[in-house]
Amino acid sequence: MSAKKSDWIDWLKTIIITVIVIVLIRMFIAVPIVVEGPSMLPTLENNDRLIVDKISLVFKDPERFDVVTFHATEKKDYIKRVIGLPGDNIEYRDDQLYVNGELVEEPYLQEAKQKLDPNATYTTDFTLEDIPGGSITVPDGHVFVLGDNRKNSTDSRHLGFIPLEQIVGIARLSYWPVTNIGIVD
């Protein structure tokens, strides 16, 4: 076999192996996504680029306050924050989150709340019974999600509870724009 043909075969093998590795990583480990719209402001901005971890969902369900992507429709994925876990009773009263009757702080909203008129509310009052498919608690196998931009977000208040099997992954890293590089909080 000539050296030229051997080089060509080596290059072809390298390209095929690289493509296989990339496909496997995207299918099972991590995937890049682009944030579309303002629903996660101030945490994430429109056109931010993130790495979403898919592999950790094999070992455990998302935790409260994880930022997750999920299949909202057959063609559209949304990115929101997990607020309620299976069995939780979620309520917003006087712009405060209550989980199972206990007040829970949301430090990721402090910046946005400080910019509000003192008499304005960031999150309107509701209980789980008020949402589509409403119940007293988050059903088994589901989560309750909200966008951080509570006044401009299509989330569980409109979509209802999100089945765990629709969750694609957990947003872990922001890599673009460069000024926003870091761990997703």
From TrEMBL:
Task: State the active site.
Answer: 39, 80
- Where do the coiled-coil regions begin and end? none
Q: How does it sit in the membrane?
A: Single-pass type II membrane protein
* PROSITE patterns, per the entry: SPASE_I_2, SPASE_I_3
Entry annotated with the keyword Endoplasmic reticulum: no
Molecular function via GO: serine-type endopeptidase activity; signal peptidase activity
EC numbers, comma separated: 3.4.21.89
Q: One of this protein's GO BP terms?
A: signal peptide processing
Q: Which family does it belong to?
A: Belongs to the peptidase S26 family.
Stated name of the protein: Signal peptidase I
Source species, please? Gracilibacillus oryzae
Q: Which gene encodes it?
A: lepB
